Structure to design on (363 residues):
């Protein structure tokens, strides 16, 4: 089975992402609990993929989300516009002046350094996007207008009781109109903890897998979010044997034969500032690996999303799974060399990284 994409000329968007976009507040080199200043960014697991594809790879993307209509929401919109992502599909929810009915999510993130791990503290309860209903978007109009690829994931589906049904409605419409569907498992314990835990996460994710063409995860997602154990690993994830991941991927594709491609990043955190970084994928039964090499980390958040956007770009452009996998790994490494959830890399930098170029200064 291979991926079949709608023609570029027949579609308004190359990719649309369904998910939350939060305001990220970053204390820079400091700590959340001691800082006096924050830098503001936008970010969200599903959105980051759309932004990377637009800003780095030049594809036409949009985001399906909801924001409370207040100055914070308009700041998030402004940041999205700076990344070139189409905002016409945002659902604006009236603001009650306090946020009792609906509000916008905040994500406080510190980068970590050396022995001090990165820390995330999200403030995202009762957000506008968490209350979306399947009927809040005109799915037929969106997909008739032309979408080549739809991307969503486990973060969006953990936001509220109704968000899995929204994802189901989007996936059904995408399949009716011939769009490729990708899904990033992106397990977050903080989101599922009061929402049924791992058992509920696995129930929700498994129910959606029959509509997925391309599946993403990391070294813990497939076990926690989908229920597929990786032989040879434990809760520390200090060892990531590729043989165990290869067997796990084979089990996933056997359980869900509709999935054409499965890709997982492999990260060994030697410290907050230095990680082993690589990836594995299976595309139409062909298993490929980019072995881990050590990379210097400035800000690890969003590295997996940047891997996904690079991998998707390779498949979209028909460059083949091996090129797509190397592109994803290279883009993820570059994204983690700069602050913020989203990538500041260029396509030429990604290609140079893929070619094994050094970090010598360019003049």
């Amino acid at each position: 089975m291979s991926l079949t994409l709608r023609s570029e000329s027949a579609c308004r968007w190359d990719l649309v992402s369904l998910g939350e976009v939060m305001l990220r507040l970053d204390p820079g080199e400091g700590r959340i609990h001691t800082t006096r200043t924050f830098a503001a960014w936008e970010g969200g697991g599903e959105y980051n993929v759309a932004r990377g594809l637009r800003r780095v790879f030049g594809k036409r993307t949009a985001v399906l989300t909801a924001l409370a209509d207040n100055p914070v929401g308009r700041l998030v919109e402004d940041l999205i516009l700076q990344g070139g992502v189409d905002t016409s599909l945002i659902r604006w929810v009236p603001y009650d002046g306090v946020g009792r009915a609906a509000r916008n999510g905040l994500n406080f993130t510190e980068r970590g350094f050396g022995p001090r791990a990165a820390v995330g503290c999200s403030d995202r309860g009762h957000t506008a996007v968490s209350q979306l209903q399947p009927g809040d978007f005109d799915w037929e109009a969106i997909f008739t207008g032309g979408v080549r690829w739809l991307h969503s994931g486990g973060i969006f589906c953990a936001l509220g009781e109704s968000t899995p049904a929204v994802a189901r409605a989007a996936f059904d419409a995408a399949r009716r109109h011939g769009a490729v569907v990708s899904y990033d498992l992106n397990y977050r314990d903080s989101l599922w903890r009061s929402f049924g835990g791992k058992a509920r996460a696995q129930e929700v994710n498994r129910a959606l897998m029959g509509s997925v063409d391309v599946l993403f995860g990391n070294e813990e997602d497939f076990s926690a979010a989908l229920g597929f154990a990786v032989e040879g690993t434990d809760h520390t994830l200090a060892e990531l044997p590729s043989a165990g991941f290869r067997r796990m991927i084979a089990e996933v594709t056997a359980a869900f034969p509709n999935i054409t491609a499965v890709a997982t990043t492999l990260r060994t955190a030697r410290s907050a500032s230095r990680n082993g970084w690589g990836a594995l994928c299976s595309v139409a039964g062909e298993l490929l690996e980019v072995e881990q090499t050590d990379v210097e980390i400035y800000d690890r958040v969003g590295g997996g999303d940047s891997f996904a956007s690079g991998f998707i770009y390779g498949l979209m452009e028909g460059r083949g799974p091996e090129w797509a996998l190397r592109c994803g790994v290279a883009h993820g490494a570059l994204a983690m060399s700069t602050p913020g959830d989203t990538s500041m890399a260029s396509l030429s930098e990604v290609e140079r990284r893929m070619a094994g170029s050094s970090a010598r200064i360019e003049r």
Confidence is low (pLDDT under 50) at residues 359-363. Residues 8-354 form a domain with the UDP-N-acetylmuramoyl-L-alanine:D-glutamate ligase fold (CATH 3.40.1190.20). The longest strand covers residues 261-271.
